[in-house]
UniProtKB/TrEMBL annotation:
Protein name: Receptor-like serine/threonine-protein kinase
GO biological process, one term: recognition of pollen
The enzyme's E.C. designation: 2.7.11.1
Topological type in the membrane: Single-pass type I membrane protein
Catalysed reactions, semicolon-separated: L-seryl-[protein] + ATP = O-phospho-L-seryl-[protein] + ADP + H(+); L-threonyl-[protein] + ATP = O-phospho-L-threonyl-[protein] + ADP + H(+)
Bulb-type lectin domain sequence ranges: 23-142
Domain Protein kinase span(s) in chain numbering: 527-818
Species the sequence originates in: Glycine max
Length: 819
């Protein structure tokens, strides 16, 4: 007989087969469009053959309404042929899926002698095989065998788990699994082709108490019932005490909890009749924490606007540009061989980057040098993590034998050091390594983007005119100024304050974060903009005192007329998120009508320029050295440690401010338009000159590509100025074009000449160039040589000959004169 159906009065479900007779019912794949079962009474779900590829079908359950979202599959990894495949209920009580009338690819594995076997399809989306004789027994139900989705009131148990799909369009088993572990804790695990690891709750917490911090918050392993369920109101409860409520909690909606192909668990909801799901909750998990997203030798980084992204390590190349999970392969050979000979290596530091797993060991209380030595001696060591443990108050060392599960996190307290062969050519500026190419600095014309910040009163107007004149004289020269932007994450609340920052203002500033001020508030703070402390191309800086008694510097921007408020906000927020002790902190902004103001921390010791020219000679040698080092660190952060690259493009002593402890803070960075990365690259109408004469790299003048090395150049000039006390701009009377390319050559050439002739001199060459204001012996000659040598490398004409800012910082830090 065909199959007859009848409704059990108590069950609001469709019973599409009553197994009273000996014949079996079957659905056939040929009629996959009609041969479906629709749940009753509301017909919310449909079960049937779902096409998953060319001539490939899976028996599945999906929402009847578009977008026909799949919620369950019987044979996700083994689709059946489009001809003669059937789903049949056998007389033995087994529900069987047969491929092309030949192979059984799936079955419920049930057997009963009862004649009362019925298949019910409930409006909950549950497909149930019942033995309906004397007492009703559930033989099998689809709710016990979820694929990647849990429906409301469907319980995840110790015997079931969710496995993600391979991708949004390929429903076969993917790499992520949600399950109850043997210790009763609900976990997410990456099960890759070669490796597997748990990534949620945060594995870093595993050794500690799960109850402390992070995603492990409040988990318990004492309840062994191992059940988790989402109810129809949007409340998820797991027996390990993990629970959350969706944003639309309490509303009755269609809901599903799905382990998505990217390893995140999300709850989606929608109203009846709507054709789009919206996300209403997810397991708290940083998008980059899911392991395996980015394969070996690559790391993941997340940005709210563009989402998650993988990046190869420096000097590595992507294996398969369709598939990041394949990772990257080194451009060099690890010269490690069976003989276990060590090879000469160097280490490239990458802060905030970490790799999980594959430690050669854990080494407590290891200094950087010890850790480096350990890794250098290990043939298979690919690099190491060096992390400061606040709990133990020492550094921990983790040499890595494989670089997997990499990610970059603003709150990561350590650094990764990549091992590279010594002989291999220099690692170039990562900008070139970046798939997005470069971005243009400054954006479209107009001076509004150029934030000048000068605490020293100077002949600014003259200099601005000069710059404008200069810019128009060079009108034909199109300069691509690249601006790769983005430190996206939120201000790191835990940032280490410099010892000098115990001034109340800075501490509060950090804690209070970034906010919007009203114009009247700022007007009041500055007493009607009465105390001017600086003036620059982009605006005037006033000293102000906020209502909480914080002293601040308020920059009032001119020339903002053609910039929309939202654009302005977008830019300002980016800068507000940058956070480094050697970068000036922005406390907030004001955008009201035509008013555009920026509120910064106030630096009581003014700018480096001011201090260098001051007659009181407060900058002794150790201050100068630490200013050079701090500035390098701040710039290195801008260039490399931010999640993207920011070029400053206008490094000069006026833009280096000094706090109460004479620690430098780089100012005036980043107020440029964030450009749509690719669209502007070839559009030279957006380009223009930036920078200040005397400090500008030759690339500007010769119309060469602009990279972070322009900042390195300017930095080098500033350092030479600090050493010698000579300004690169002093006494220039030649024409501007010449000025651009030659005037600072004087300072550079002069120092170079002194070094060249060093052998002929009895004393050290640095004695000849040192700022007379320092006195003849009041400096460390060794440090002086290091600084001068590094500075000269920074001002090499050829950009590739210049070190990167992080290399500079490293060398100054370690007192290493040569790389
Ligand atoms: C889905 O992915 C699996 C594993 O990579 C592959 O074997 C299968 O052919 C894919 N299916 C479709 C329909 O693309
Ligand atoms: C264990 O978890 C279940 C489900 O959340 C809960 O009903 C039960 O009360 C818990 N048992 C204990 C001892 O806490
Ligand atoms: C579970 O969470 C509740 C409230 O969040 C808390 O009161 C309780 O102590 C927790 N149970 C365990 C065993 O940690
Ligand atoms: C091991 O060392 C020997 C002698 O130094 C050398 O000939 C051989 O090629 C090395 N083996 C490998 C695999 O490099
Ligand atoms: C770390 O090592 C240093 C020097 O080896 C030692 O003085 C210090 O006590 C050690 N710290 C801890 C916490 O073991």
């Amino acid at each position: 007989m065909g199959f007859s159906t009848f409704l059990l009065p108590l069950l609001v479900s469709l019973i599409f087969h009553n197994f009273q007779h000996s014949s079996s019912f079957s659905l056939s794949v040929e009629k996959f469009k009609e041969d479906v079962i629709v749940s009753s009474p509301k017909g919310k779900f449909t079960a049937g053959f779902y096409p998953v590829g060319d001539n490939a079908y899976c028996f599945a359950i999906w929402y009847t309404q578009p977008p026909h979202t799949l919620v369950w599959m019987a044979n996700r990894d083994q689709p059946v042929n489009g001809k003669r495949s059937t789903l049949s209920l056998l007389t033995t009580g087994n529900l069987v899926l047969t491929d092309a009338a030949q192979f059984m690819v799936w079955s419920t594995n049930t057997a009963t002698s009862s004649k009362q076997v019925q298949l019910h399809f409930y409006d909950t989306g549950n497909l149930v095989l019942l033995d309906n004789s004397d007492n009703v027994v559930v033989l099998w139900q689809s709710f016990d065998y979820p694929t990647d989705t849990l429906l409301p009131d469907q319980t995840l148990t110790k015997n079931s788990n969710l496995i993600s799909s391979r991708s949004g369009t390929n429903y076969s088993s993917g790499f992520y699994k949600l399950f109850f572990d043997s210790d009763n804790v609900l976990r997410l695990m990456y099960q890759g082709p070669r490796v597997s690891s748990v990534y949620w709750p945060d594995p870093w917490l595993l050794n500690n108490n799960l109850g402390i911090g992070g995603t492990g918050n409040g988990r318990t392993s004492y309840n062994d019932s191992r059940v988790a369920v989402l109810d129809e109101f949007g409340h998820f409860v797991s027996s390990d005490n993990f629970t959350f409520k969706t944003s639309d909690y309490r509303t009755v909606l269609q809901r599903r909890l799905t382990l998505d192909p990217d390893g995140s668990v999300r709850v989606y909801s929608k109203n009846d009749g709507e054709d789009k799901w919206s996300m209403s909750g997810e397991f708290k998990l940083h998008p980059c924490y899911a392991h395996g997203i980015c394969g070996s030798n690559s790391y993941c980084r997340y940005e709210p606007t563009t989402g998650r992204k993988c990046l190869c390590l420096p000097d590595h190349t992507l294996v398969d540009n369709q598939d990041w999970s394949q990772g990257c392969t080194p451009n060099f050979q690890h010269l490690c061989n069976d003989n276990n000979t060590k090879y000469e290596s160097r280490f490239l530091g990458m802060s905030l980057v970490s790799f999980y797993g594959y430690d050669y060991g854990y080494f407590a209380n290891y200094t950087y040098k010890q850790c480096e030595n350990l890794c250098s001696r290990l043939c298979q060591c690919k690099g190491f993590l060096h992390i400061f443990s606040e709990e133990n108050a020492f550094f921990e060392c983790y040499p890595k034998t494989q670089l997997l599960n990499g990610n970059r996190q603003m709150d990561f307290k350590g650094s990764f050091f990549l091992r590279l062969p010594l002989s291999h050519e220099e690692y170039e500026n990562p900008v070139q390594n970046n798939d997005n190419g470069g971005l243009v600095c400054g954006g479209e014309g107009g001076g509004a983007k150029l934030l000048e910040r000068q605490y020293a009163e100077e002949k600014e107007n003259g200099s601005v005119k000069l710059m404008l004149w200069f810019a128009s004289a060079l009108g034909g020269i199109e300069v691509v100024c690249i601006f790769l932007v983005w430190c996206f994450l939120f201000r790191n609340k835990n940032r280490k304050l410099h010892s000098g920052a115990d001034k109340q203002g800075y501490v509060i500033a950090t804690a209070a974060g970034f906010r919007k001020f009203s114009y009247s508030e700022l007007k009041q703070a500055t007493k009607g903009f009465s105390e001017e402390i600086g003036r620059g191309g982009g605006g005037t800086v006033y000293k102000g005192v906020l209502s909480d008694n914080r002293v601040v510097a308020i920059k009032r921007l001119h020339e903002v007329a053609n910039q929309g408020e939202s654009e302005f906000l977008a830019e300002v927020r980016i800068i507000g998120r940058l956070n480094h002790m050697n970068l000036i902190g922005m406390l907030g902004y004001c955008a009201e009508g035509k008013h555009r103001l920026l509120v910064y921390e106030h630096m009581e010791n003014g700018s480096l320029a001011q201090n260098l020219s001051s007659s009181s000679n407060v900058l002794d040698w150790s201050k100068r050295y630490s200013i050079a080092l701090g500035t390098a660190k701040g710039l290195a952060y801008l260039h490399e440690e931010c999640l993207e690259w920011i070029l400053h493009c206008d490094i000069k002593p006026q833009n280096i401010l000094l706090d109460s402890d004479y620690q430098p803070k780089v100012a005036d960075f980043g107020l440029s338009k964030l450009l749509n990365r690719n669209s502007n690259l070839n559009n030279s109408s957006f380009s223009r000159i930036r920078g200040t004469r005397g400090y500008m790299a030759p690339e500007w003048v010769f119309n060469l590509p602009i990279t972070s090395k322009v900042d390195v150049y300017s930095y080098g000039i500033v350092v030479l100025e600090m050493i010698t006390g000579r300004s690169p701009t002093a006494g220039i009377q030649i024409t501007e074009l010449e000025a651009a390319s030659h005037h600072h050559e004087r300072l550079v050439t002069w120092v170079r000449d002194k070094r060249r002739t060093r052998s002929k001199m009895g004393s050290s060459w640095v004695d000849q160039i040192v700022d007379p204001a320092l006195g003849s012996k009041n400096y460390d000659r060794n440090e002086m040589e290091i600084l001068a040598t590094v500075a000269l490398e920074c001002v090499e004409d050829e950009k590739d000959a210049r070190p990167s800012m992080s290399q500079v910082a490293e060398r100054l830090q370690n007192h290493e004169p040569y790389t």
